[in-house]
Amino acid sequence: MDLTYQEKKKRLEVFLKKYDYDEKMKDFILNSLSTNCMCDVVSQAYSACDILEENDNMYLEFLANLEKYFTLDHNIIDVGGGVYPALATYIKEKQVKLKTGTITVFDPNLVVNKLNGIILKKEAFTEKTKIKSCDLIIGTYTCEATIPIIRNARKNHIPFSIALCGCTHFESQKLKSIPYLSYHQMQYLWNEYVMSEVNKGLPNDMEIKIDYFNNIKHPYPIITKTYKK
Ligand SMILES: C[S@@+](CC[C@H](N)C(=O)[O-])C[C@H]1O[C@@H](n2cnc3c(N)ncnc32)[C@H](O)[C@@H]1O
C-alpha cells in the first residue's frame, strides 16, 4: 500500500501521542520522513504504524532467521528491545496464534507501560539478571547489552540469538580509546572480542551459527548459540 507523506505523518503523529516519547525524539522521528534516516527508534515507530518498507524491516528478517533454529512457543527475553519494542510485538502476535509462550522485554528506555501482553521490564539487563524460567534470549542491535547477554546466557546454559549493531561497546577503557584505528578496524576488533566471549566455555551440547541480513544496510552478524540437533 503506497501512502502519501501526509498519510504517513498522520499515522506517526497519532502513534507518538500515545506513548511517553520526549519532544526531541518525537521531532526526530517525524523528521525522518524527510531525512530518510532509518535508525532504531525510527524503524520501531514505522513498524508500529505499519509504514516500514519490507526491505527495511530487519525485525521480520531477524524473526525468520530465529525460526530456523527455534520455535516461539517458549519463554523468550528480548534484551534492549527498544523504546517501542517492535520485534516483541511480532513475536507476541505469533505466540497468540500458537496459544503459548511469553515474551519479556528489558530496556531502560521503554516509552510504553503496557503493550499487547508483552512483559515489560524498564530496566537494564546485566550478566547477573535473574532469568529463572527463560528458554531463549534474543536481541537486535544489542549495543551495551551485548556482553551481558552472552555472559548471562553462558552462566544459565541458555541459547541466544543476537544481531550485532554497527557500534562497538568495549568495557575496558583501554580498548575504547585505541588511537588511529578506523571505524572498520574498531568494528573488526569488536567482532573478535564478541566472538571470544561467545566461544568461551562452549558446552558440548551447544553450537554457534553465524548469519547475515539480506539487506546490505545491515552488514553485521546475527550470532546464535543453540543446542546441537
Ligand atoms: C540500538 S538500540 C536497538 C533497539 C531495538 N532492539 C531495535 O533493534 O530496534 C539498543 C537498545 O538497547 C537498550 N539497552 C542498552 N543497554 C541495555 C541493557 N544493559 N539492558 C537492556 N537494554 C539496554 C537501549 O536503551 C536501546 O533501546
What can you tell me about this protein's structure?
With 229 residues, this protein is of the alpha/beta class. It has two domains: 5-56, no CATH class; 66-227, 3-Layer(aba) Sandwich (Rossmann fold). The protein has helices spanning 5-18, 23-35, 40-48, 58-69, 86-98, 146-156, 173-176, 183-199, and strands at 75-79, 102-106, 119-121, 136-140, 160-163, 206-212, 221-227. Strands 3-2-1-4-5-7-6 form a seven-stranded mixed beta sheet, sandwiched between helices. Strand 1 (75-79), helix 5 and strand 2 form a beta-alpha-beta unit. Helix 1 runs antiparallel to helix 2 (23-35). The longest helix has 17 residues, at 183-199. The N and C termini lie far apart (41 Å). Residues 40, 43-44, 79-83, 86, 106-109, 124-125, 139-141, 143-145, 148, 165 line the site of S-adenosylmethionine (SAM).
SSE inventory with pairings:
Elements: H1 5-18, H2 23-35, H3 40-48, H4 58-69, E1 75-79, H5 86-98, E2 102-106, E3 119-121, E4 136-140, H6 146-156, E5 160-163, H7 173-176, H8 183-199, E6 206-212, E7 221-227
Parallel strand pairs: 1-2, 1-4, 2-3, 4-5
Antiparallel strand pairs: 5-7, 6-7
Helix pairs in contact: 1-2
The protein binds S-adenosylmethionine (SAM).
S-adenosylmethionine is lined by residues 40, 43-44, 79-83, 86, 106-109, 124-125, 139-141, 143-145, 148, 165.
Instruction: Report the CATH superfamily of the largest domain.
Output: Vaccinia Virus protein VP39
| Tally of DSSP helical segments | 8
SSE order, as H and E? HHHHEHEEEHEHHEE
Bound molecules: S-adenosylmethionine
CATH class of the largest domain: Alpha Beta
- Radius of gyration from CA coordinates: 18 Å
Based on DSSP secondary structure assignment, what is the total number of beta strands? 7
Strand adjacency order, main sheet: 3-2-1-4-5-7-6
What is the number of independent domains?
A: 2
CATH topology of the largest domain: Rossmann fold
